C-alpha cells in the first residue's frame, strides 16, 4: 500500500504490506528513507543496507537507489528539494554524508507526525496557512534528524512544544481549546509585538493569512514565532484562526438568518464541507444541528 502527499518542494509517502521499487535516481531531490516497522533492504550506489525500524538513510540528488520491504514492514519516505533552512545556514557538511545505521530516529514520533501531516493532505483544498505549518513541521523534523545526535535531544523538545497538539492537527476542543487573548492592549506581560499579531489575527481572521507575515509583525523568525505563539495561546496559528472562525459562526447561526453556506464562505472556508468538519470537531454537532437546537 502506498500513501502519497505532495506539497511545495516536498513529497511524503508511506509504504507497507510488501513493496519494492526499481533502481532510480532523482535529479534534484534528496530522499530520506525511514523504516518504522520491520526491516527494509535498501541498495544505494551499489552498497546494500539492511535497515531496521528506527534507522534511516539519506539519498542525495542523482544517487541511484532502490529498496524493498516485506509484508510485515512499513517505511516512511520524505523527499525534499532544498536543505532545511537551519542546515543551509550552518553549511551542508552535516547532510552531505549518509545517515549511518548508528544514527537513529524514533519510529513512534515520525509515525505520529506523519498522521498529522496526512490530515493536511486529506483536506479538499487545504488552507495555505495549514500547508505552511505542515511544511515547517516537516522541515524542522528533517533539520533535526539530519543534524546528528548533538542537536537532536534539544531540538526534539523544542519541536514537541511547537507541533504537539490534537491528533488531527487541525482543531483543539474541550479543555484543549486555544486561549483566546484580548486585543485591546490589556494582556499584561505579553510582548507588544505578539500583541500586535493577535490584533492582526482578530481583525482579519476571515481572510487568508501566512506565517511569514505574522512572524514579521512579531519581529521573529518563523520557528521562533511558532514557538512563541504556541506558548502564548496553547495552539498553532492555524488552530487559533480556525477556532476564531467557529466562534464567529456560532454568533452568526444564533443571531442571523444567513444560510450555512453563506456563513461558511463569509468566514473564509474554501468548502462548506471544510466548515462542517471544523464546526463539528469543536462543537460536537453540525452547524445545522446547532441552529436547530436554539
From TrEMBL:
Keyword set includes Repeat: no
Domain HTH araC/xylS-type, residue spans: 195-293
Domain of life (superkingdom): Bacteria
CDD domains: cupin_RmlC-like (cd02208)
InterPro entries per UniProt: AraC-bd (IPR003313), AraC_XylS_family_regulators (IPR050204), Homeodomain-like_sf (IPR009057), HTH-like (IPR037923), HTH_AraC (IPR018060), HTH_AraC-typ_CS (IPR018062), RmlC-like_jellyroll (IPR014710), Tscrpt_reg_AraC-type_HTH (IPR020449)
Molecular function GO labels: DNA-binding transcription factor activity; sequence-specific DNA binding
Keywords carried by this UniProt record: Activator, Cytoplasm, DNA-binding, Transcription, Transcription regulation
PROSITE patterns: HTH_ARAC_FAMILY_1 (PS00041), HTH_ARAC_FAMILY_2 (PS01124)
Protein name: AraC family transcriptional regulator
Species per Swiss-Prot/TrEMBL record: Paenibacillus polysaccharolyticus
Lineage per the UniProt record: Bacteria, Bacillati, Bacillota, Bacilli, Bacillales
Amino acid at each position: 500500500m502506498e500513501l502519497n502527499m505532495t506539497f511545495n518542494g516536498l513529497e511524503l509517502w508511506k509504504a507497507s504490506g510488501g513493496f519494492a521499487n526499481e533502481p532510480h535516481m532523482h535529479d534534484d531531490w534528496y530522499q530520506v528513507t525511514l523504516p518504522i516497522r520491520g526491516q527494509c533492504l535498501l541498495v544505494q550506489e551499489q552498497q546494500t543496507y539492511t535497515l531496521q525500524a528506527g534507522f534511516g538513510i539519506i539519498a542525495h540528488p542523482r544517487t541511484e537507489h532502490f529498496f524493498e520491504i516485506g509484508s510485515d514492514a512499513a517505511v516512511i519516505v520524505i523527499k525534499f528539494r532544498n536543505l532545511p533552512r537551519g542546515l543551509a545556514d550552518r553549511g551542508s557538511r552535516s547532510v552531505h554524508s549518509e545517515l549511518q545505521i548508528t544514527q537513529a530516529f524514533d519510529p513512534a514520533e515520525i509515525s505520529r507526525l506523519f498522521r498529522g501531516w496526512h490530515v493536511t493532505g486529506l483536506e479538499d483544498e487545504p488552507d495555505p496557512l495549514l500547508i505552511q505549518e505542515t511544511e515547517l513541521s516537516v522541515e524542522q523534523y528533517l533539520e533535526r534528524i539530519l543534524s546528528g545526535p548533538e542537536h537532536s535531544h534539544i531540538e526534539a523538545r523544542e519541536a514537541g512544544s511547537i507541533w504537539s497538539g490534537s491528533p488531527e492537527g487541525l482543531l483543539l476542543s474541550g479543555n484543549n481549546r486555544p486561549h483566546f487573548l484580548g486585543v485591546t492592549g490589556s494582556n499584561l506581560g505579553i510582548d507588544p509585538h505578539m500583541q500586535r499579531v493577535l490584533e492582526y489575527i482578530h481583525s482579519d481572521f476571515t481572510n487568508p493569512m501566512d506565517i511569514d507575515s505574522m512572524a514579521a509583525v512579531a519581529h521573529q523568525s518563523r520557528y521562533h514565532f511558532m514557538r512563541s505563539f504556541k506558548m502564548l495561546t496553547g495552539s498553532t496559528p492555524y488552530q487559533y484562526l480556525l477556532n476564531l472562525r467557529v466562534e464567529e459562526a456560532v454568533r452568526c447561526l444564533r443571531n442571523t438568518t444567513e444560510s450555512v453556506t453563506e456563513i461558511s464562505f463569509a468566514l473564509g472556508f474554501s468548502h462548506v464541507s471544510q466548515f462542517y468538519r471544523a464546526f463539528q470537531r469543536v462543537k460536537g454537532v453540525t452547524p445545522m444541528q446547532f441552529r436547530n437546537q436554539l
